[in-house]
Every structure is written in C-alpha cells, then in structure tokens.
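Contributing new records

If you add data, match the layout below exactly. Sequence lines come first and carry their own label; structure lines follow with theirs. Keep one chain per record. Anything else will be rejected by the validation script.
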Amino acid sequence: MTSRERILAAVGHKSPDRVPVDLGATPSSGISIVAYSNLLDWLGLDYPVYGYDVIQQVAQPQAEILERFDVDVLDVGRFFNEDPGYWHELELTPGHKAMYPQWFRPERQEDGSWDAKGPSGRVIGHMPAGATFFDQTIFPYIDGYPSDFKSLGEDMQLSVWGGLGISPWDGNDGEDFWKRLRETVMKARKSTDKALVIGVGCNLFEWGCFLRRMDNFLIDLFICPKDVERLLDALMERHMETVRKTCDAVGDIVDIIKFGDDLGTNQGPFMPAGTYREFFYPRHKAMCDYVKSHTDMKTMLHSCGSIEIYLPSLIEAGFDIVNPVQINARDMEPAHLKKEYGKDIAFWGGGVNTQSVLNNGTPAQVRAQVLENLEVFSAGGGYVFNTVHNIMPDVPPQNIVAMFDAVKEFSSR
C-alpha cells in the first residue's frame, strides 16, 4: 500500500498492510521543539529545527525523519513554508535555537520571559522564564458579551489562537489565498504518496473559553444560554464560510479535514452529555454534513481528555476520526473504547501515554505499552498510531526511538 492508501484503509475500518503512523500532521500530534532538538542530537543529525506552531512551540519534522519513522501523513501547511526566507532564528529556550516564521517576533523581558504581540500590536501571549509554550494574556469578553459581534474577527485575533497563526493560515489575509491554497496542495499531492491533512479549527466550546475565559464560559452554559447561543451563531457564520471555501479549494485533493474542540479533562468531561448535545452537536453536525455532501474528505475531531460520554453524539454528528485518544483520562481505556465505538469511529493517537510512560518510563516500558495498545486499537483497522497529544519537552530521545521501533516490531509480526 501507499501511505495514502494505508491511512484511508485504516480510517475506513479496513486492515492495512501495516499500522499507519503520524508524526506532525497536526499541531496536536507532533513533537515539541525541545524534544525534537534533543532527538536530532541523539541521532547525530545536524538539521535545523523549524517551529511552525509558535504557541505550543511544536516542531515541523524534516522529511528524512518522517521517512525514518515510517510516517504516512502530512499537514498541508508544511508546503507553505518551504521558502528559506519564511524563517528566522531565535533561541526562546536556552540551548535550543530554532527557526520561526518571520512574522513571529517575541520580545524578551528582563526576567527572561517572552511577550508575543498579535496583529493589533498588543501583547497576546506570554511565555514565562523556564516555560516552553505561550499562555494567553487577553480574554476579550471577560467582562461580558458585546451587544453584537461586528468586531468578532478582530476580537478573535486578541487570543493567541487567533493572533498567532499556523501555516497555511498565517497567510490567509491575501486576496489570492484560496487560489494559492489549491495550487500549492495540488503540487504537494503530486509530489508525495502520503495522506494530506488540513486543519481548519472551527472550534466552538474552545472559542467561548478563549473569548470569555474558561471558568466564565462554563458558567455561561448554564446561567446565560442565550448569550452563548448568540456567540455560537456568530462563530458559525465564520466557520461555515471557512468550511465552504476549504471544500471548494481542496476538497477533492485533501484526504482529511481536522476540526478542534477540547471537551474533557483528565478527570472527566467538561459538561454533561446533554449540554454538549444542546449547544455544540447541531453545529458540529452542520459542518460535518457540509464536508460530506461536497467532498470525500474524512472528518477528524481533536478533543483532549475524557470524552467517552460524547462519542455517540460525535459519531452521529459525522466525525470519522477522533484524536488524541487520551488513554490516561477517565473512561478512556483502550479496550473499552475499541469494543464500544471501534466500528463507528477511527482512533488516531492513544499509542502511548505522554504524561507518564513516554516521558518517565524506560525504553522497555515504552515498548511494552506501545505493543499492548497496538494489539487492542489496530485490530480490524480503524487506527492510526500516534502518541497521546504532542511529544513534550521532557521526553528522552531514546524513548521516542523505542516507541517507533515498537510500532515497526508490531507491524512486522
């Protein structure tokens, strides 16, 4: 099988020739700049480190690394930053120089922290000294909802998630963006047999949290639902425009479209299933319905945490894939997920626990968990291997190699 065939077979609940693998096809299935730098050093490779997600400080792995680890899928954004002039060098974390987009010019503070400004010129992100990612500093609606949402676009740019873009979306303000998107992705598809993913975000619950702050927005769901509905309707106007334009531009040449909306924590879901059903299910379904009626793209939802209670609704809404499959969260045990939902939704992730095993375990322990989880998740297809979310800065490079070696070992059985 080609990589594209392998991914689509697995997502279609067929058994591929081997377990398909992801590393870096989304900003939530990649590797941190620090961990990637350490990995390259451990492998004895003198490659530059490219930081394409400046908020989470996530690296864009070189093609040679992707081939080394048998990766089958790519983020289309990487084809928009191939020009060396796109990048400049910074050292945000001591000892770890990396290349960043030219537009990203954070300012170092006297205490060693970093401030990042958005399009408005205001500081929208702050990375404390010793930290490895940027925190949001402005919550535009923290004091209440506006009477209308005429300035929603500008307000969204005051959040790090709206103001510090990821390619290709950091260039989406040009008049020819959608034409360039199609031309670039068509060229990319001809150059690789790997599956292609485009992330469109279109978050709903999360945008409520980014604008109002999470504690406020969770309360709003119960005490001021009409304001929540107004905000979600305004967001949907923007989201549906993004979905329509994306489908028109690349719906026939991209394999997977990724949405995002974190709905859970380690301890449980953020809200009752009925609350999700009331506010978010109809809107998720509207976006999935449009994709499915206008393209052959598969739909992925990235949602962290304990989301088991939402899976029936997510399946009904039309999501084909869920990521990152946080197996260490409540009610997210691999065997349970596979048995109850494995015929209806594909699992992308959950290959190894990044919060305990991958970072603190031995290579032997990493190998054992990978093999155990592959035995469960890969049966009958419906699975793409990836870690639980990104490989974090504290993960030893030998554990990363042990993880991918275990995948190869399993596939060669």
